[in-house]
Every structure is written in C-alpha cells, then in structure tokens.
Input
Amino acid sequence: MTKIFRNCLIFSIFLTACVSNNKEQQNSDSTTVENPEEYNLTKAEALEDYILALDSTDIESVGKATSKFKELFEKKESPENDKGVALIMDYIDKVSIYAHRSAFDDETNYRPLVNIEFDGGKAAVPSDLEQAYDKINRNGFRVRETEGMFDLEANPIYFQENFYPYITSDLEILLQQIGRDNMEGYADDAAIAIPFQSLVQRTVWYEDFANKTKGTIAGEKAQKEYEKYFTTLTIGMDNTPAIESQQISPYFQEAYSYLKDFSPNSATYKKLEPYIALLQEQKIDEAKAMLPSLIGRSIN
Output
C-alpha cells in the first residue's frame, strides 16, 4: 500500500512539473510575440517586417506603410531614418507594378490626371475623377500614360511632404534629383524620351553622386540609378537602340560625342571609350562582344 502511495505521489509531482513547464513555455512564447523588442529589432527591421505583411496589390497599403514609418521613426535626420525611407521607396516601386487593378478601372479615362500635379494640381481634377485621384495621390503615386495604358508612378511631392523632415541631406538631394527626372520623363513606349544631352548629364550626375555618398543609403540608391542610365547609354532601348542596321544610330553618335566633350574624365566615358571606338569604326560584332563586361549581358 505504501509503495502504491509513493508511486502515486511521484506521478503527481511529475505531472505538476510538466504543467508548470508548459505554462512557463507558453508565457515565454507569449512574451516573445507580444514584445518584439526582445529580438532587439532596429526600427528599420520592424518596418521591414510590417511591410512584408502588407498586400502589394492594394494601393492603400502604401499609406499604411507610411503611417507605420511615422509611428516608428523620430522626425530628425539620421542614417537609420534613411533606411526606413529606402524601404518605402522600394515598396512603392513594387506596388506600382502590382496594384494596377486597385487603382484603375478599365472603363474610365484617366488622361486628365496625367501630369496634373505639375499642371493645375488638385484644383484641376475633374469632379468625376476626384475619388480616384485622391486614392492615387494620398498613397504616393501619380498617373502616367504609356502606350495608351495608364500606370502608377511614384510621386516626388509625396516624398517631400512625408519624408524630408526625417532624412539626411544626401538622401534629400537624391530624391530631389529623382523627382526632377520623374517630371521630365525618361522613356515612353520602349523608347528614350529625353534629349541625348539629358541622358548623358543624368548618367554622369549619378556616377558623381554615388561616388561622393558611397557607404550610405543615398549612395546605394544613386548607384542603382547610375546602373540604369549607364545601361541605357550603352545599348539604348528597344525603340531607340544604340546599334541600328549594324551601325551606330544618330542619337547615340551625338550622345557619345557630347559625353566626350561634357565629361571626358568621368568613369562613364573611360569605360565606354573602347566600345565607342569600335562602333565608330563599324566593328559592330567586336563592340557587342564587350557588352557582358560593360553591362553584364549581351544583345543580338
């Protein structure tokens, strides 16, 4: 009898310990979930986690991301704030691709909204498009028209109104430049939509700025812009190719001549100089063979 009692007592103590351990484990898990600071997340990491849970097909999600940014970050210039704004920039680019259906109705003509930010502003919005414009505008976008289709494009005014008080002067300068490029245009219908002088000037500007701000968020973003423009300056676009009928096209003949005069000591010109020489000598196949080393890929 004593043996049976002792065994029951041992089993009872063991069961109590298991229940206690389970409760402690549950409490531990609850603390982890309810208190993410236990992970020592930075503000940028917390914002990134929040953005990852958003629906990029919903244009309204940009407004949610912006509100979360303002909740997390203090209104002062800092590199950490730059990281947060860079996440917003990347997310806006993503939403511009995937949120078309949440912004546009196929039966509606949005042409009156194209470039309206710089041509009359909100006061010029037609009454029947006010609701659509409000949703697009307050979530960081403007309307552009490409090949007869309406698309979302990042609105530089949105960044100015919402993020300039938080970021470093380097990132502000970069956003201003990207905003100017945005207003002036870049491409349309797979063709270059700016003069060759502008293409060269932008390429060299981003090269210089990326070098001056190396190691910063502004520098990383500037480098990406530089790579985009350098690639365009090297091979052009589908409807404005650098090589046309097995010879250098007139647009690029002028662009390369202008680059040599405008910035002969730039890394851009020094990298392109042998390639340009081959094009001018009509050694097209040899010039094309250089492309993998210049832009990381070849063309037909």
Strands lie at 141-146, 149-154, 187-188, 191-192, 236-237, 240-241, 243-244, 247-248. The longest strand covers residues 141-146. The first helix runs from residue 2 to 34.
